[in-house]
Amino acid sequence: MRRVDTGQRRLGRLPRTTQILFGERQSLQNALRLLRSTRLPAERRRLEEGLLRQMIAIRTRELEAIHPGWDARVRRVARRATSAGELRRLTRRAPREDYYLLRLISDHPSAPADVLARLARHPYRAVRQNVARHPRTPIPTLRALCRDRREPLWYLVAFNPSAPEELREQLRARIQRQGQRR
Description:
Elements: H1 3-6, H2 18-36, H3 42-66, H4 70-78, H5 84-93, H6 99-107, H7 113-119, H8 125-133, H9 139-147, H10 153-157, H11 165-181
């Protein structure tokens, strides 16, 4: 399998964002669940459970250090009933390195247009991709995303039902031209 297929890239040292810390904590919690269903001597089970719990606690502290009250904030954003005003407040208070929370906000059905416009400039690609797909993204923001040369966000805008029809037609023609070159 090619590196591009697995999503792996050579980036050097990555920042310890909430996206990474949350993923690590989830993996450790899964390992703890699996450990409980494994036949092991009692002493070894206690030792490994203790180590996993310590590592989970460390990741939780790291998440809290980036953004105090992180778990409660993520639960609030995960609720579909969370209002646009609450999402706006959570976005304003979120540190830039809280990639996970901002990714959830950028995908929330109630995300307000001004929040999406702000998140369109976020350094995390998944946040910008969510903004390009979101039906509430303002048209000027969609047009700006189409001009971004760093990545093909224009492709996502081409299928955004909120993009103006003339813009979607231009982008679909671009897709066809690129397909013909290959």
